[in-house]
Write a structure and sequence with these properties.
By secondary structure, the protein is α+β, with helices and mostly antiparallel strands. It has helices at residues 13-22, 76-79, 82-90, 111-120, 175-178, 209-224, 230-245, 253-265, 270-284, and strands at residues 27-31, 35-36, 93-96, 103-108, 125-128, 133-138, 144-148, 151-154, 160-161, 171-172. Helices cover 34% and strands 14% of the residues. Helix 6 (209-224) runs antiparallel to helix 7 (230-245) and helix 6 (209-224) runs parallel beside helix 8 (253-265).
């Protein structure tokens, strides 16, 4: 099996991060494997309530680089703080939140995907990657992986690895890119009415509706960003949602439909979604 090309480490990740932040690009450190640093003990398994998205406030005020993409910031006091110092010493790369910088990255993961983009998409600023290219467009949109073979969209609620500024003129986000994640009528069916939502067993322990909303949004993102083992990711995500929200009556058919829609957008069948949900409920005794 071909070994992946090692991630390129900036000469000084902290310096690079501060330069990007000055330019208005929210940044965070990445560890080996191109993944964010894990949550601290206080934030493990989102016990703190999770980071907010970029437009809302939330209960977590953790100073560490927790919660993946949501830790990205342009605040130099945070980036160069003692709480982030260890992460920068161990960082393999710098990442950024494209949506927070009003950008969309079309991640082309192989030569075939690059060839498709050159034939289909408007030319824009590009950056070579270890296996393909990143194409940058001005404007933010929903992120999605696997929109076509070898093509991912990284923008809102996602992160991308910083490589270099790239070359070419940055152009506005075109309709061709937005259309890559547009659902065709009937292509993704909502959760069936037969899916049961756990009944409440007492007073809701979730302090605000925003807590549940963040949980569902993070679950959708986890499924959307799955690059492999999608079956297992869907099941484990359903299990996590039910474990956190399945006993107080907060979940509604609408929440379940959102999770099913995210799973089906990754190629899961309606039957697998139904079975995964039922198995997760059985595992938890719901």
């Amino acid at each position: 099996m071909t070994q992946p090309t090692p991630i390129r480490r900036p000469a000084d990740p902290l310096h690079t991060a501060l330069e990007l932040a000055t330019a208005g690009v929210p940044v965070l450190p990445l560890r080996a494997g191109k993944v964010p640093f894990g949550n601290c003990r206080a934030c493990a398994k989102n016990a703190c309530g999770g980071r907010p998205n970029m437009k809302t406030s939330g209960p977590c005020a953790c100073p560490a680089p927790c919660h993946g993409w949501a830790a990205a910031t342009t605040d130099p006091r945070v980036i160069d703080s003692a709480a982030w110092a260890r992460a920068w010493r161990e960082a393999a790369a710098v990442a950024y939140h494209p949506g927070g910088a009003d950008l969309t990255v079309v991640d082309l993961d192989n030569p075939d995907a690059v060839a498709w983009a050159r034939q289909t998409l408007p030319p824009t600023r590009t950056v070579p990657t270890t296996r393909g290219e990143h194409w940058f467009y001005r404007g933010a949109m929903r992120s999605a992986n696997g929109v076509r073979p070898g093509v991912d969209i990284k923008s809102r609620m996602s992160y991308a690895r910083w490589l270099d500024p790239g070359s070419g003129a940055l152009v506005a986000l075109p309709d061709q890119v937005r259309a890559l994640i547009a659902k065709k009528p009937g292509s993704v069916r909502p959760a069936p009415q037969a899916i049961s939502v756990p009944a409440g067993e007492g007073e809701c322990r979730h302090r605000t509706p925003a807590y549940l909303e963040r949980g569902i949004a993070m679950a959708e993102q986890r499924i959307t960003e799955a690059c492999e083992a999608v079956h297992n990711t869907v099941y484990r995500t359903f299990l996590a949602v039910l474990s956190a929200h399945g006993r107080c009556g907060c979940l509604t058919d609408t929440h379940v439909a959102r999770l099913f829609t995210a799973a089906q957008a990754k190629g899961e069948s309606q039957r697998h979604c139904t079975d995964a949900w039922a198995n997760a409920r059985t595992t938890l005794g719901l």
